[in-house]
Amino acid sequence: xxxxxxxxxxxxxxxxxxxxxxxxxxxxxRLVAYAxxxxxxxxxxxxxxxxFITSIKPTSAVLDIPISFVPTxxxxxxxxEIFQNRPFELYTLNSLIVASTTTIICxxxxxxxxxxxxxxxxxxxxxxxxxxxxxxxxxxIALIVPFFSIMSNPPLVGGLTGSLYDxxxxxxxxxxxxxxxxxxxxxxxxxxxxxESLDExxxxxxxxxxxxxxxxxxxxxxxGIAATAIxxxxxxxNEFVFALVLTSSEQAQxxxxxxxxxxxxxxxxxxxxxxxxxxxxxxxxLFGLFFQQYIVSGLTQGAVKE
Amino acid sequence: GGNGSSDGESGSDGSGETTGTGxxxxxxxxxxxxxGSLKYDPGTEANIERFEDETGIxxxxxxxxWNNLKTSLTTIWRNKDATVDAFNGPTWWLADFVASDWLEPxxxxxxxxxxxxKNLQNLVTLDGKTYMAPEFGKWGTYLYDQTxxxxxxxxxxxxxxxxxxxKGQQLKTENTSPFAFTWSNKSVFTxxxxxxxxxxxxxxDSNEPVFVDxxxxxxxxxxxxxxxDLIPDGISSMGEGGAGxxxxxxxLASVESWTPLGxxxxxxxxxxxxxxxxxxxxxGPDSRATFQDTNGIxxxxxxxxxxxxxxxxxxxxxxxxxxxxMKVEGNPAVIPSVYDSEEIQSQYPSWLLEDMxxxxxxxxxxxxxxxxxxxxYLAEQITPALLGDKDPQKALETAQxxxxxxxxxxxLL
Amino acid sequence: xxxxxxxxxxxxxxDVTAVDGISLDIPDESFTVFVGxxxxxxxxxxxxxxxxxxxxxxxxxxxxxxxxDRRAYERDIAMVFQNYALYPHKTVRENMRFGLExxxxxxxxxxxxxTEAAELLQIQDLLERKPSELSGGQQQRVALGRAIxxxxxxxxxxxxxxxxxAKLRVQMRAELNKLHEELxxxxxxxxxxxxxxxxxxxxxxxxxxxxxxxxxxxxxxxSNPRNxxxxxxxxxxxxNFIEGTLERDSAEKLQLDIGxxxxxxxDEFADELEAYLDDQVVLGIRPENISLNQDGIAANVHxxxxxxxxxxxxxxxxxxxxDTGQTIKAxxxxxxxxxxxxxxxxxxxxxxxxxxxxxxxESLTYESKSEQKLTA
Amino acid sequence: xxxxxxxxxxxxxxDVTAVDGISLDIPDESFTVFVGxxxxxxxxxxxxxxxxxxxxxxxxxxxxxxxxDRRAYERDIAMVFQNYALYPHKTVRENMRFGLExxxxxxxxxxxxxTEAAELLQIQDLLERKPSELSGGQQQRVALGRAIxxxxxxxxxxxxxxxxxAKLRVQMRAELNKLHEELxxxxxxxxxxxxxxxxxxxxxxxxxxxxxxxxxxxxxxxSNPRNxxxxxxxxxxxxNFIEGTLERDSAEKLQLDIGxxxxxxxDEFADELEAYLDDQVVLGIRPENISLNQDGIAANVHxxxxxxxxxxxxxxxxxxxxDTGQTIKAxxxxxxxxxxxxxxxxxxxxxxxxxxxxxxxESLTYESKSEQKLTA
Amino acid sequence: MSTEKQSLRxxxxxxxxPLTVGPTMLWIAGIIVYPTLKLLWSSVFWTNPITSQxxxxxxxxxxxxxxxxxxxxxxxxxxxxxxxxxxxxFVYVGLSVSISFALGLGIALLLDKDLKGRGWFRxxxxxxxxxxxxxxxxxxxxxxxxxxxxxxxxxxxxxxxxSKIAFFSDGTLSMMALVIADIWVFTPFIIIILLxxxxxxxxxxxxxxxxxxxxxxxxxxxxTYPFLKxxxxxxxxxxxxxxxxALDLVWVMTQxxxxxxxxxWASWLYRTAQVFNRPGEGAxxxxxxxxxxxxxxxxxxxxxxxxPY
Lengths: 306, 413, 376, 376, 309
Ligand SMILES: Nc1ncnc2c1ncn2[C@@H]1O[C@H](COP(=O)(O)OP(=O)(O)OP(=O)(O)O)[C@@H](O)[C@H]1O
Ligand SMILES: Nc1ncnc2c1ncn2[C@@H]1O[C@H](COP(=O)(O)OP(=O)(O)OP(=O)(O)O)[C@@H](O)[C@H]1O
Ligand SMILES: [Mg+2]
Ligand SMILES: [Mg+2]
Hints:
The complex is a heteropentamer, with 1 copy of chain A, 1 copy of chain B, 2 copies of chain C and 1 copy of chain E. Chain A contains 14 helices and no strands. Chain A has helices at residues 2-14, 24-55, 77-85, 88-119, 125-135, 144-152, 168-192, 196-204, 209-220, 222-238, 241-246, 255-260, 270-290, 292-300. In chain A, helix 4 (88-119) packs parallel to helix 7 and helix 4 packs across helix 10. By secondary structure, chain B is of the alpha/beta class. Chain B is 45% helix and 14% strand. In chain B, strands 1, 2, 3, 4, 7 and 12 form a 6-stranded mixed sheet that branches. The longest helix of chain B has 18 residues, at 392-409. Chain C has 2 domains: 4-232, 3-Layer(aba) Sandwich (Rossmann fold), CATH 3.40.50.300; 233-375, CATH 2.40.50.140. Chain C has helices at 42-50, 92-102, 107-120, 136-148, 166-183, 194-200, 218-223, 228-233, 270-274, 366-375; strands at 4-13, 16-26, 31-35, 57-62, 65-66, 77-80, 154-158, 186-190, 203-208, 211-216, 240-248, 254-257, 262-264, 280-285, 290-292, 301-311, 316-322, 327-332, 343-348, 354-356. In chain C, the strands form 4 sheets. Chain C has a 6-stranded mixed sheet, sandwiched between helices. A 5-stranded antiparallel sheet of chain C has the order 13-12-11-14-20. The longest helix of chain C is centred in the middle third of the chain and has 18 residues, at 166-183. Chains A and B meet through helix 6 of A and strand 1, strand 2, helix 2, helix 10 and helix 11 of B.
């Protein structure tokens, strides 16, 4: 009893909910925040949970009524069957390579360009920025055919022979085209919020534009960079239509394609689909968990808050 | 025929290979686009393995989700790209592909083609050339829940549309609807099947849409079913999976579904050979024809490995392959003789085989140009009509005039 | 080490002219202090020298080289910003190290200098904190520390001690003095603290409205202002100005008629003022040069009534109404016993008198006083 | 209108105790000034009163109500922040209006008050600018303006004049004084400027290291510090401390042996100091209470050598080496003629002497001097 | 430092803007110039889907898509498809963007608080966005399944409803399902962008506002919002642009059905260009879409465009 209380007490203290050390309104707000966040997380995770329990139900039990929301006879057979037939490791690898390369390119170029747009009033600054944002308003679906033709013909540059069709490079190029404008724009807006006096101080400290940018401004732009990186990563991670058209084999196909393959034409085998979906979701979830501290610290650190 | 070495000099496909002529040497690999995952096509998978073993030509299978296969192919061909050699798809794509010069005639020879029933041969032949080798059949089979029938005192499946209605009254219970259709979320397919049963067709020989009269029979039938509550609510959204699921859940007394549902039902909990039964489709005003949705293999006109691809198309559609496919997967064979073979007879109940064979021989279909858009014009009118939200006559007339205009537009009329 | 030269420097922001044609020579190794009212352009001038703003017009040279087109990082300066501009994500130590690292200073030198500066600024215990965890004065000391660890050609300091208490400020002032004596780095310094200006400066530049009013040695400027603005700006409480008409008294000597009272002009100024006979002249006298004549009425005293007694610790400031109606201030001994309402006689220290032209504000006695000093 | 009471107030940041048990009564309508060295906890105390920090311990009441759990916006205070904290996206006018709008002030009152305050602060011309287009001093005035337009229960001002030049500061000080006389709003004020502290305060609280060292009327605290810290902190240059051994001279009177020289203890302190006979005692004397005895050696003078002559305008500060080796400072008339190296005799004003226990730092004469003042 | 190195440094510094902006502009030019021209070019041609022959038709493609051919009795002479699909798009984008924005803003504000364990909350909240859209679409199709879906399960098994709802057989319900799925998938995006933006709000201004007597709402309006504006602009713009042309969810969940009741511009464009093989009309739709998007973005710029300084 007493230990229970003390662990409860510890929990309360750890969550910053003890009225001893905190303002009562702060505690009240925190409580409300925890409650709301808890509710929200519960609601948005419920579908994932439902897919998960569907995936560990025996195939036949999936269609039981009433629906059981707690698995009674969990089984991994759906997973085993799927894994036997699917090179998921390859799809995951492709997704990872494509998404991370795209992210690196977009974040690098987007950050430096966004910074210049934010700080320097060079000729055409506004026009260029507007055209960058405007560029991304073209709906990509309208461009499937031209893109396919670019990628399936030997590239103009580099003296390479052979086309880029069904390579990760094709996807990376396509995705950077889509993501870069946004990266530039997000970073520009972010840098607008970083006080210019810090640039000046860096200059006084003997930094050239490059050095000041790299050593002072970049560390402070972490939240913006993190947001941009996540955006670029997830967009590439999730893209489907172009992956479908530009790739045709495991050497370049990504997870969304893998998932879509579970959809047979004429009936949906929900148990296996759910298992496949979980497997396809897993890299993302693991990725999220693994990088959570980077995501979180990226999104908060460097903050210019004074 | 298991002897694949007859023309098996596996010449390497030289880099300077030219397209178009049949005199090229045999490539040692081809790219095959399969609709959906081979996981769900074990029959095809087994046949591909046999092909590779016997010819030494390796087949690179590219699984493309069904919904996107046509897009992928269209994109590739609009670029005159040689990425794909052969693919597997339904017969109703043929007309558009052929009209665009995207497919290569298969030159399968009469001996091969004569294995298939006449109606099917016609379907894959355009301007006298064969563009698709039929691989396996897809058509509706009337399945019913025998236990439920017995409980409601119905001893025999309905033989005609009228019986569907009359027996439906008996079969209806609180939890169970008497009747549903496999094609139900593709209302066009449903419509076509019943149109054929009513003796109608979509187009006449000079490409004019002519379905309004026959269509009205279909609409009348449906209105009866709907107003008398003999089909479930929301019928328009019940895809094959949905109808099948509902059937297995015991909430449908009978269903017109493509055959694998039979196999699924036999495996399901609480089902078995005693409970599941099949019958021939109920006869409409004209016939018991079902809708033909057969899949076959075609070869790309832009392929650089046409010889190997054609060989593949032929191999995959031999009697043996057809039998294998049916054995492994339960896909209905498109060659009547397969149903009589001993292996198959021992594997499936004879009543089922009898109905399947009947369907194969009586199925109907049409190939017509601008199929997706024609279907779209149809669907947008008949879906609300089927649901009772629109006057059927008016819906059909609108659809017909829209299609007429489309055909004028593209120069067919 | 370098001397800095400003030539007709102008800086305009949209519709504000912040710096309006400044020319100034800042000799090598000198300590030049800018003073002037709020918004007169001190910070802007510093930023122009630093290369953080582009001059609208004019020329800046550092060490004989025109640097208008040089980037700030190429000018080799260290600067203390008025608003600190500390890097919020770096600790105090990192803030201080950064400039040195940028200049490829060896690690041991960095450590040494940072430690030294931290000690000098009494922030040794704060080295690992982030700026947000510091008090205002501590942040300011870090900003100062960041500059003094460097060894630049020019130091620019913008009110670096404004947030420090008197005691610390005296210490820091002494340290800055020592530092300047040791390193002799040319320093340009902005302050609003007169004591700082007087004690630190080799030369002091008084600015107003974007222009330099007077430049010179601090005591010279203080005791010999060129015009009423400078006279009034320096000194706290500021100089009293008493306007009157110049006339001749019965003895034919010049005297100022200031209403019901008169003021005798000292003989040495008679020549300069002659020309203003019968004209308006302003007499300037600093509060600390006024004393209470408690021995009864004598010559050259002015009767007045005490209005306010303001003890300020080391001195007491009196607000007095002259019998002529003008209000003036006097700074007297803190142990004075006068009280509100007392009638007193004021004696103006005759060595410290100044006379100005009320129209132009120019000092009438500037030249002669300057000479006097020189000969003295 | 409200009085403010602080009871054993403590504020700890992670490992720093910024405020360490402060108890203070701030009477209604009073003007209380906090002074103390940089980092001693002044800002933190203000923030605690404002409700921007939560007290780790202790109690704060405003107008008889304990407000520990009241939020800042429920406390009805106006505050000038040390770092201004202007809203960068609002114009000067909007910055000033905002607080009034929050308190549902009628439009015409807002307009009137903002116009008035702007005039008073001499920022009328800047009303449409954004803070980033202002000089440091201008920003500070806006921050001040934002507070004074309000009519709160308590004003909190954190070094509101630190970035203004002397002249403007004197004006602002006067305006604040007038404002306080008109409105009588309880005001808590932090400054490092002693003149400000002395002239504005009804009571002054000297802080060190998170604690209050002494509270009282400004002149009282200045002339009668409770301990060496207070004595040394107030006044600039600060009080000289001379340590010696208390002994009896030939006449049996107490005297301080300060090496080669001695210092006679005035009779009125004989009783208090008696107990320290043969012990160490520290003599405190402010620089301005030291004068140069130029009439040759007499009683109670101390010979010394001038080391540094520092003219500061209104006074000149001398750094002197006593013959005993100790260094002290004296503030003398600016027209002094002494020069570096001169030998002089110093006279300590005997009314202004202080004595301290060197161990505890406590004043030994605090009690008796307080009484003296009272009876005087 | 050697003078050589110094002059290099100087040169590099002078080239800062060209070097930072140049490569990106070149890179992007690929998608501005080429595809835009391609799009405009294609939109004035008509390709016979049967014979693949191209024909210059001027603005006919636009006329056909936007105005009814007969023009009889339709609203403003607009094509009924155009009107209804525009309305669907408006409903779909409007509802899902506004709801997810409100939700995302709320959650971002909560997550910006100094809470223990907020790291885990952040991760948990982002996950829906990490899952492939296809998977999410299927998942929601399963959730809304008319027989075995969790939603029907909960509603009927808890006794709230007596019979199950066939969500995908009703246009309105299908749209609702799409909107819910869309909100589920894209709210994390809003959260992330706004969360990053919130980091730039100077803490001291909250203090100043609180002292000025500003309550929660007023602090949000007067301090948070001005600093968040650029991020809101980014979040809304990208969100709207993505949603207007988002195809994945619609295609996986309803394919525009039942009938055409959930057909939106994106699926219409896809259907026209890819399924019907009518690239010219698809391109024309693309141009319309581009113009509409541009207008929306311009509007957003007007509302949120100013930066806080
Ligand atoms: N957020 C914080 N975290 C940790 N320490 C802090 C924080 N804020 C203030 N301190 C410390 O608390 C002490 C008191 O700070 P405070 O700001 O009250 O000083 P102050 O008296 O206002 O000084 P100054 O005159 O320099 O402004 C200082 O040592 C400071 O470093
Ligand atoms: N970025 C700007 N845009 C417009 N006006 C500006 C800008 N910066 C400064 N000013 C104006 O230029 C004038 C000079 O400003 P500056 O900062 O140099 O004054 P200062 O002498 O440093 O004053 P203070 O002692 O108050 O800091 C002021 O009137 C100020 O308002
Ligand atoms: Mg300034
Ligand atoms: Mg402070």
